[in-house]
Amino acid sequence: MQFVRLLPIVFLTTHLGQCFLIAYESVPRSVADRAVYYVKSTQLDDFSCAYNALFNACNLDRACGVPNRFADYSQFSRISSAYARSEGLNPKGSTSTRNSDDLALNHLRMKNVCNLGFKDARIIPLFDLHARISITGRESKAEQQRMFQREFERQQEAFIDSIKYQFDAAAGLTRVMHFVCTVQDGGTGHAVLVSLVQNSTGRGLYIFDNLNRRISENSEIMRYIHYLSDRFSVSSRGIYQGPQLPERWSSAPKPRVRYYYN
After folding, report:
1. Each residue's pLDDT tens digit, 125-145
2. Strand pairing category for 36-39 and 113-119
3. Of 33, 58, 186, 189, which is least surrounded by CB within 10 A?
4. Among 63, 61, 46, 157, which residue's Cα sits nearest to residue 104?
């Protein structure tokens, strides 16, 4: 079951004979006792990081028993390439959070994807904000701006609260939510997928970075990992038992270049 999108935004079943040899990268000590897994990803050479994040999200859905036909690379590639052409985008180039959200929601039919960003020491969901405030006319423009900002922050918190509520209300049942997290890489944005998976044993976080770069305590993605782990009460490794993942997604083409920077 996927989630119904509450606000507009600004992304196994096993096969007979398939061998499950998933490779995990190490995670920093601060989260090593939690069910936080850094999955070694297969790079999609024909697509940039945001598309890679969405393809991994599609496949993790399927791994958790959530139907997603775009886990098949041929279908994912066809839809994503057509979308990029329609928007005048280079699929190997940068993609805005607005475009990646539009692709996920309206073309890949994924309602369980949220873009996250970092602003003023806060993790925030990235979507179009439409606020109404009541003013008396005596407020200065600066005060009106602060009122709008408080309303924006309320909407952002309400959005995250709504996801937590849906998970809590379905405790013990399978739920998956994908967070496409923007980190800075050489002055440009880079998309890293952090997926929250709930099942009968608890909750786990799965990290996918198509560059497979080492994560240290000082890595920017750790802000998101700590935030999501705390906000959604991710389980300990000793309790949580997640889905079996293959060494590589069955339909993913083999990369022409190795992108592992460890």
Report:
1. 887 655 565 666 676 777 767
2. unpaired
3. 186
4. 61
